[in-house]
Amino acid sequence: MKTRRAIVENWLPRYTGVPLNKFGEFILLTNFDHYVKLFAQWHRVPILGRDRPMTSATAGDITIINFGMGSATAATVMDLLSAIKPQAVLFLGKCGGLKHRAELGDLILPIAAIRGEGTSNDYFPPEVPALPAFALQKAISTTIREHARDYWTGTVYTTNRRVWEHDDDFKKYLRKIRAMCIDMETATIFMTGFYNEIPTGALLLVSDQPMTPDGVKTAESDTQVDQKYVNDHLRIGIASLKQLINKGVTVKHLKF
User: Fold this and answer.
1) pTM for the whole structure
2) Of the candidates 164, 178, 174, 151, the residue with the CA atom closest to the CA atom of residue 216
3) What is the rounded distance in angstroms from the CA atom of residue 149 to the CA atom of residue 141?
4) What's the half-sphere exposure (Cβ side, CA atoms, 13 Å) at 129?
5) Domain range spanning residue 83?
6) Residue 220 maps to which CATH number?
7) Is the pLDDT of residue 217 over 90?
8) Tally of domains in the chain
9) CB count in 10 Å sphere of residue 101
10) Half-sphere exposure at residue 47, Cβ-oriented, CA atoms within 13 angstroms
11) β partners of residue 65
12) Which pLDDT belongs to residue 255?
C-alpha cells in the first residue's frame, strides 16, 4: 500500500463491498438511499454494501452510489472512483434555492460552483474554478427538454456548514455573490473530478428555500419533495447517461 493507486483499488471495494470489475463505466452519485432503492427497483437489481459506508446498485453500464453527505465524503468517493476511471460521473444532489424564482422541485443545471467548502483546496489553489464537463451538462440539458421539463442555470455555492440558516450575515454574503443555490458537495466533486481526470457533471433538485425561516427544510417537507420530485430527478439522470452510452459520445473534452 505504498502508492495512491494501490490504496484506491483496495479501498473502493472496502467502502462499497463491490469488486472493481463489477462497477459500471458510468456513475450516478447521490446522498440518499431513496435514490439507490428506486434505481434498484426499476432495474430489478440488488443493493450492495448495506454493511458498508456506501451503498450501490448496478444495471448494465450504470452504477449508482450513495456516498453520504458533505464535501469530505464527496472528495473520498471521487478519489476512490479513480481506481476504475469511469467514463463520466453525474451527481444528482439536492440544493437550497437562494433566489425566489427557484421553486421547490425545480431543476438547476450548474455551469460552475463556488468553492466555499475548503476541501477542494487540498487539490487545487483557490483561484482554480470549479467547472463541470461541458459535454455532460449538454447531454443533461437535452434530456431535460426531452422529458418536457425546464431548468435554471447558474452557479452553486458549496459550503461545509450544515447549519447556517440562522446566520443573517452569511445570508447577506450569499445574496452578494448571486449564486442560484447552495449545497455541500458540487464544487468538491467538480474539483476532485478534474484532479482525478474524471469527467463530472451535476443536476441539482431544489429541495428547500433556506433564505426565509418558513423555507428551511424539515423532515416533513423533505418527504414531500421525495414523493413529488425525486422520481423525475433520477429518471433524467439515468436517461442523460444513457444518451452518452447509446450515442457513444465522449465527455472527456479537457486535456487533464
Assistant:
1) 0.94
2) 164
3) 10
4) 9
5) 4-247
6) 3.40.50.1580
7) no
8) 1
9) 8
10) 18
11) 29, 56
12) 43
